[in-house]
């Protein structure tokens, strides 16, 4: 038999072992804000990413519990969308468009070049934490490709030389 709200105040959720309390509280607050959104998991994940910069896998049990989903469901969504990075990004994020219009004007060569220059693949961060390299499939700049975005700033008609210049302008020091 269901208890009435007067008889049984809602219990505090149990803390997740191994998860920092502050992080857990921030994630629960984000869920509370978006709980009523349609298909709440995606808006919640976007909000977590927006606030923390990434979706730490340690928050999966909290999200699953709060949204009444299985951990596997939450994990599946996080891993399906490249957008939901699971580790902190580098100090600078470089995104290369690899969609068709940009590919037709040289994005493939840029992709090879940037991976070789940075020594990382897409989705990875350089060991010094300076740069995270991502691929995207359209930056909305198709008429002036190849398109590259550096920390949210869009660059069009990027030649290999311009790419090198963009990479050279990335601060290398943590406090730069
Ligand atoms: S295809 Fe590259 S910006 Fe659209």
From TrEMBL:
Cofactor, how bound (note): Binds 1 [2Fe-2S] cluster.
Keyword Cell membrane: no
Any one GO molecular function term: oxidoreductase activity
Gene3D superfamilies hit by this protein: Glutaredoxin (3.40.30.10), NADH-quinone oxidoreductase subunit E (1.10.10.1590)
Region (Disordered): 1-20
Composition bias, Acidic residues: 9-20
CDD domains xref list: TRX_Fd_NuoE_FDH_gamma
InterPro entries from the UniProt entry: NADP_DH_HndA-like, NuoE-like, NuoE_N, Thioredoxin-like_sf
Residues where [2Fe-2S] cluster binds: 97, 102, 138, 142
Cofactor: [2Fe-2S] cluster
Keyword match Transferase: no
Pfam families, sorted: 2Fe-2S_thioredx
Alphabetical UniProt keywords: 2Fe-2S, Iron, Iron-sulfur, Metal-binding
Entry superkingdom: Bacteria
Family: Belongs to the complex I 24 kDa subunit family.
Protein name: Formate dehydrogenase subunit gamma
Native source species: Streptomyces poonensis
């Amino acid at each position: 038999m269901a208890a009435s709200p007067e008889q049984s105040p809602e219990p505090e959720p149990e803390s997740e072992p191994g998860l920092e309390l502050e992080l857990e509280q921030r994630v629960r607050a984000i869920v509370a804000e978006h709980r009523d959104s349609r298909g709440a998991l995606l808006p919640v994940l976007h909000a977590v990413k927006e606030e923390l910069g990434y979706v730490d896998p340690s928050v999966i049990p909290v999200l699953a519990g709060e949204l009444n989903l299985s951990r596997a469901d939450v994990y599946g969504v996080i891993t399906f969308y490249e957008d939901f990075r699971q580790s902190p990004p580098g100090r600078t994020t470089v995104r290369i468009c690899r969609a068709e219009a940009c590919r037709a004007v040289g994005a493939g060569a840029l992709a090879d070049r940037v991976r070789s220059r940075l020594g990382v693949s897409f989705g990875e961060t350089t060991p010094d934490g300076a740069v995270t390299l991502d691929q995207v499939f359209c930056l909305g700049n198709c008429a002036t490709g190849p398109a590259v975005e550096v920390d949210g700033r869009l660059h069009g008609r990027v030649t290999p030389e311009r790419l090198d210049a963009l990479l050279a302008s990335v601060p290398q020091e943590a406090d730069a």
